[in-house]
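Hi V.,

You were right to ask for the full record rather than a summary. Here it is.
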Amino acid sequence: MKTYLFPALKLTFLCIILFVVVYPSLIWAVAQLSENQGKGDLQNVGQAFTQDKYFQTRPSAVSYNGGGSGGSNKGIANADYLKEVQARIDTFLVHNPDIQKAAIPSDLVTASGSGLDPHISPQAALVQVKRIAKIRKIDEQKLIELVNQHIEKPLFGLFGTAKVHVLKLNLALDKM
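Predicted structure:
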């Protein structure tokens, strides 16, 4: 009995110390090094911006409902999907009369896979600069600089694409 009981108790005690004290303490210490000290980021879900004075985000297939993400199963040959995209293009052109249809980035008229993506491409942000500059009476070059400051580079310069977090960009825009 001693042959099995004492090693098992030692291993149990070691695991308790390791997984209840050491590991959580290590994770907590690493979290303290992050910009928000491990408190999370409540700004990581896409939100609808309907006023023309803001940068618009991607359309959402779930109406930006953070309770459940999901995309549409409609493909590019689906007539309903094509009508939705055309309606989004038409709406964008009404609000951005200086932009040609061919200049509209696809991420401004197609929903993301989750329906909650808070990011758009830098091109999608830059195509909206003229409208926002006119409404807010801000120099276009200042807005271009603001967008460039909020471009998030690909991970390690290799993985993913450059993107702009729309909520963070709009918060910075309000501070201008």
